[in-house]
Hints:
single chain; mainly alpha
Amino acid sequence: MSIETLLLFAGALLVLFLTPGPGIAAMIARTLDAGPWHAAIYGSGILLGDMFWFTLAVTGLSAVAEQLGPFWLAAKLVGASYLGWMAFKAFWSAWTGARPKPVFKAGSKRGWIATFLAGIAMPLSNPKPIVFYLTLVPAFVPIEAITPLSYAAMLLIMVAMAVPTAGFYIGAAHRARTWLSTPTVRRGADIVTGCVMTGIALLLLLR
């Protein structure tokens, strides 16, 4: 595979990762709720889910995705349930005026694992990466020319594109946490966060 094709792939990924979507919104909300490390774990789950769809595309298994109806539905339910719980906690914080406890106990193994699994569920049920990897990637990347070495290189490119873009959004949200800690601003932010999370959960269920 040529360097030009790999650069084209990297550019397409950069656009995909920078474009705001459900995954980025959920990652920002996770930062505000439990801090940047939990958001990073959530983001790593999203990246693994993206790699799943990419692998389906490059191995010629796109047709298999059409047979994953029950699995896809389960992924939607997991992702929507997690986002719904986050929305509930945000609305509860706005109603009571008190800072809620994190969705998961910070640093607990259960918290890390649950956050990671919820991150995986996001791209598995989100139309944006599905359309990108299963339709657009085969359109501009010669699938038949992908070797194990080039496949590994493309996975590394995915990591190289995902880490800084996720870090940008997580870092910006984390820097805003002190300002958001004031009661009035926090209540408004909780309402906005709850509305966004509810909207994303409904989007995952209805699409």
